[in-house]
Amino acid sequence: MPEIVLAAARFGFLVLLWIFVFTVVGVIRRDLFAGSRAGRLVATPRGVNVAAGNARPAKVKKGRAAHQLVVTAGALAGTKITLGEAPITIGRAEDSTLVITDDYASARHARLVPRDGQWVLEDLGSTNGTYLDRSKVSGPTPVPLGVPIRIGRTSLELRP
Amino acid sequence: MTTPPTPIAATPIIKPSTRALPEAARAARRTELWLLLLGMLLVAAYLAAVEANMLETVSSDFWAPAGVLAAVFLALHVVIRLRAPFADPVLMPAVALLNGLGVAFLRRLDLGRAEVPDRADLTVFAGDGGRQLLWTLIAVFGAAVVLWFVRDHREISKYAWTLGLAGIVLVLLPALLPGSISEVNGAKLWIKFGSLFAIQPGEFAKLSLLVFFAYYLVRKREVLALASRRFLGIDFPRGRDLGPVLVVWALSLLVLVFEKDLGTSLLYFGMFVVTLYVATERVSWLIIGLLLFFGGAALAYVLAETAGGPFASFGNRVDVWLNPFDEPYKSGYQLTQSLLGLGTGGMFGTGPGAGNPLQVPEVRNDFIFAGMGEEVGLFGLTALLVLYLLVVERGFRAALTVRDSFGKLLAGGLAFTLGLQVFVIIGGVSKLIPLTGQTTPFLSAGGSSLVANWLLVAVLLRISDAARTPASMGGVRK
Fold it and tell me: What are this entry's molecular-function GO terms (chain B) (predicted)?
């Protein structure tokens, strides 16, 4: 084998190795910043008007709709859930969307349901109650962006 | 509130069909496929470069090991597509590349051992490289089985106590067995079946103990995190809550003394302390852990100097680490050869197949990193280290995003253990810390290590799938 071919093989391999590394880094980078973009791509929770029976589309400004549920305090702090069109159940039960291990939470504690382009919080008869900011949730209550939902030691917030 | 109090249950909920995968999942799987093919191309390039250097020509079937590997990993890719469609796209290809380069390097060592005229006749499944290739088949099959049958990582927590007990038995077994069955090169870490087949139960103990730690700490985190006394500005836990950590500490010291292996002991202890730290968010656990470990290691060294006996081997290792060039042909031989190999490699290495890695003793397992370092240089080794770093980072990412505490602790613990093992062995061969007989994950020759680490990757894939499944798909699928 001529010297030049061997040198090409030696450096070619190293270059290819680093190309692989940078491709992986690129994938991860796209992944890290996908959260904000994916948020815009996901359709806003579609309003399904049952009470009125008319097919009036929900008047929700795109930028104001909640796309993420973020845990801000408690054992799961930092967890983010990208919201789709399905309700989010919260509790200690293993099949909840958000499983919180908290002594003050019930097995099926609360749920968030999309309605008319808004997320509605509903307590499912928990022992220690669900709080929206400082007031106890008794019936279905719409949740504005950035207002803390408190369950036991855990706090959650809707984010755009 | 202006909302009419209609019962929420009456609201029809649009059930997305689980059959059609969202674009995000399909894009992730496409990325995985391309990265995997690129990785296998790299392995083939390495094999070609090796043959060009060692045979003076490139044979027509140089790509065969890379082809076999590609087929195996493509099968795993299909399993991931079917059973974990949202899983991290980077984990599998990165690990597959490391595994593939390990196989290719071991094959290169086989070529180096063979006489020059016989080199062209080396078949795909011959020698250490072939053995490693077969073990890769088994390991990937194991990973596929885990992905196929464990649909939800929380199912694993049901067997936590069983796995914990199994873990302790696996850790202690080699220590209790007579040295003729369990001792290889001074470390009692093995169970030998006859002369050609041996397993390292500690590799599997790592995984099962972690499952138990994660399960135990999810239940105990509150008391460990909240009941504390403040001293010197750091929150220290109560005496009785220290119980389990002291038990694990004692266990790891027993491993150190009876199995004569600092690395494994550091691995178990570090694993536990970090899961404890992740569970409680208390820096005090890290401080306590580091103090206990360094205290224990210093004590063992002092005992080795004064009493000798079971501590002597540990003392020798520390002496070699401090002054490897004192006896370069006796006790310091391994380490000096490793350092000389790395030094010969320099920045860009001698090129695949052009070095003399067989000068380094144990180059097929403990010192594989030094052997590869001679041929790919600092430039190549850094790329390999970055790959490990990225795999660990993806593990932590899965831990951060998964929605249940058990999954968080398990993924965090698994990723950290992998990182710590890489640190312990590469720190050892590069004389940063005393050398210990750990395997380099995915690279070293050794079936147990390969199988155990692929199982680890399978669990990480499963957790990352759960983490990345959008909530609209029902969170974690049943």
Answer: lipid-linked peptidoglycan transporter activity
